[in-house]
Amino acid sequence: MDMALKTARVALVGNPNSGKTALFNALTGAHQKVANYAGVTVERKEGLIRTASGRTMSVLDLPGTYSLRARSPDEEVTRDAVLGRLAGEVPPDVLVCVADATNLRLILRLVLELKAVGRPMVLALNMYDIAQRQGLRIDLEKLGAELGVPIITTVATRKRGIDDLIAAVETQVDVAAASENHWRSPDATELRTAAREAERIMKACVRPPERPDTLTGRIDDVLLHPLGGMVILMVILFAMFQAVFSWAAPLMDGIEGIVGWLGAGVAALLPDGLLQSLIVDGIISGVGSVLVFLPQILILFLFIIALEDFGYMARAAFLMDKIMGGAGLHGRAFIPLLSSFACAIPGIMAARVIDSKRDRLTTILVAPLMTCSARIPVYTLIIAAFIPNETVWGFVNLQGLVMFGLYAAGIVSALLVSLVIRKVFWRGAVEPFMMELPTYKVPDFKSVVFNLWIRAKIFINRAGRIILPLVIILWVLATFPYPPENATMPGIDYSFAGMIGRALEPIFAPIGFNWQMVVALIPGMAAREVAVAALGTTYAIADAENATGLLASTLSAQWSLATALSFLAWYIFAPQCVATLGVVKRETNSWKWTWIMIGYMFGLAYLASFVTYHVAVALGGG
Amino acid sequence: MTDTIKLSQARRGDQGVITQVGAHCHHQGEAVELERRLLELGFVEGAHVELLHEGLFGRDPIAIKVDDMRVALRRHEAASLTIRLDAA
User: Fold this and answer.
1) What's the gap in Å between the CA of B9 and the closest CA on chain A?
2) CA angle A396, A401, A404 (to 5 degrees)
3) Short-list A66, A61, A68, A63, CA closest to A10
4) The Ferrous iron transporter FeoA-like domain covers which part of the protein (chain B) (predicted)?
């Protein structure tokens, strides 16, 4: 049996917005694995299905494309996978070309191009229910004859046509043989010829809809209105941030509670000593300090996935393109930068939506400048300690104003840095901005939840794999060597972290940092907000996270205003988060760019703190 | 009487037919690449276009209806497309 029915390999190819991923989900259900292709940071989604005849089929969801002539790393993967020359991948036996039945012109051209590859193919006309509702008549028999491929109609979101599709693919596996590949990159003349041929087939087989979709046009009149659209975008963003910060709060408290409970439980089980300290202080609290951001990240993703499925994200990119473009960024960079307000890690991972390699790299490099929520505990602590809670100009709360200033500083510096990156590294080259504005669709609840689940798994997986070894290293630095018997100061002062802190103190003295602050910066590398607990440790305040009032009053007695402002300036820019650095390395696949980012961020942090400190001292804040 | 314009000069509501994609005398790699990308997105001679929306700042970017799909692009790229405006 197994001899006769060997595993069949199927690859899904199609235009972006064709419902390809929905079809992939309908085919494979929960049996999918998400990873990266060897050597590139392009998401590889594979799923297994068992056919009625007992055959195993592995289905690969290739990145969406309009052409095999790849323009981005994602599209290169699609091209190479289709051509069977992707390192580490077995060439597909059958291609399933996924088409939006209501928007056939471009996919017909792609089908013609794919035919040159010579692999057996099936064309899936997805969203067929919408085509029928519009009264769009497609002569399936004629279309199949013109193209020379079997055609199956599907409605992925309703799981309609899935069995037919699997059966058609199986037939292709059994009967069709791959012919010679004579694909080569088409030039403009060949593209025109193919477009004309697609147009001819279109005219011959498809009768225009009797009730064309006018809803998208009407929604766009509102959402893309030059002024009104901008206002709506701002309202959506505001609602999103409200949700991210207010809905997440109880969940984050819950996670902190569980982490604390787990730590206490393990501490009670294990004897005092090194192992207990490693597991409780190192691993549980270190990983917990990053995991605590999961609720915010999930809520953010919920909005992004729902808005993307609705079709709004392309509109947001359209509205923001001029502003982003002024800084040398692509309109699409808006989404990753937005995510970075919760946490730079999902932001950097979301930069994959940007086609152009350069624009994507620029976006990754500036994403950590956005004020992530791990900075908030640091900001609130320092603001509470040093900024008087008073009203200025009649109605503005001074503390709130400083907070706003810190956010604004992050945004403005990100735009300026990307401008500099374009001038320095890309010599002013501008990538074209061109993208389809998809038809609006009501997001499917089940698929939104499913995608959210996949995103969460990826975040925990990737972040976990990066964070775990790093928190262990930081724990070693903060634990060894042990304090002497007659120690008068907290243990961390005698550790490697303490030694490093004291050794670095002369470097930080010009920006107004004392050695306790420098020591606190080291465990603060695990996640920015850990610096609050670390400051508590160095100032010997137990449970500083929950006793911030006490810590704030200690700090305001010990630090000058200039030092406090300098510390805030440091936190706007410094790459104080090893998890982010690890993700940057992963996503750029380059140590060079990771070091460039670390270098420029520390450089800016030092410069900003230096200027802040000396200006503040000159104004009497010393 | 000039009813043939660059798409980048079009205003909201303008409709027409694409008469030329790219410039015929280009020799630069970038222009060739842009022409191919436009063709792949459906901007091909004979396609019907309508300018649907303009951005807030400098009326840029623009949203174009190309036959039956919608595409956003910057006026900078739209300058590579020549259209013949429909008679009003």
Assistant:
1) 17
2) 135
3) A61
4) 5-85
**Kind and range of the H or E run holding A105:** helix A105-115
The whole-number pLDDT of residue B30 equals 75
Is the CB of A220 less than 8 angstroms away from the CB of B63?
A: yes
| A481 neighbors A495 (Cβ within 8 angstroms) | yes
Pick from A188, A217, A331: CB nearest B22 = A188
Q: What is the pLDDT of residues A445-502, one digit of tens each?
A: 888 998 888 878 877 776 677 777 877 887 888 788 877 777 777 777 788 888 888 8
Q: What is the CATH number of the domain that holds A107?
A: 3.40.50.300
The full DSSP string for A499-559 is HHHHHHHHHHGGGT--HHHHHHHTGGGS-TTHHHHHHHHHTT-TTTTT-HHHHHHHHHHHS
Domain B2-83 coded CATH 1.20.1250.20: no
Q: Quick check: B42 contacting A, CB < 8 Å?
A: yes
Structure tokens that stand for A112 in this block: 């013609």
Query: For the stretch A106-117, what's the b/e string if a residue is b when 16 or more beta carbons lie within 10 angstroms of its beta carbon?
Result: bbbbbbbbbbeb
- β-pair type (A396-397, A391-392): antiparallel
Q: Which residues pair with A46 in a beta bridge?
A: A33, A60
The rounded distance, in Å, linking the Cα atoms of A127 and A213 is 13
Q: Is residue A58 part of a domain?
A: yes
Stated pTM of the model: 0.85
Length of chain A measured in residues: 622
Positive or negative: CA dihedral A306, A308, A313, A314: negative
Does residue A200 lie in a domain region? yes
A249-279: b (≥16 Cβ within 10 Å) or e: eeebeebbeebeeebeeebeeeeeeeebebb
Q: What is the pLDDT of residues A569-596, one digit of tens each?
A: 999 999 988 889 988 988 888 899 999 9
**ipTM of the assembly?**
0.94
Residue A554 lies in a domain: no
Q: Residue A525: inside a domain, yes or no?
A: no
Q: Two tokens at B28?
A: 């630069």
A71 close to B (CB below 8 A): yes
Q: How many domains does chain A have?
A: 1
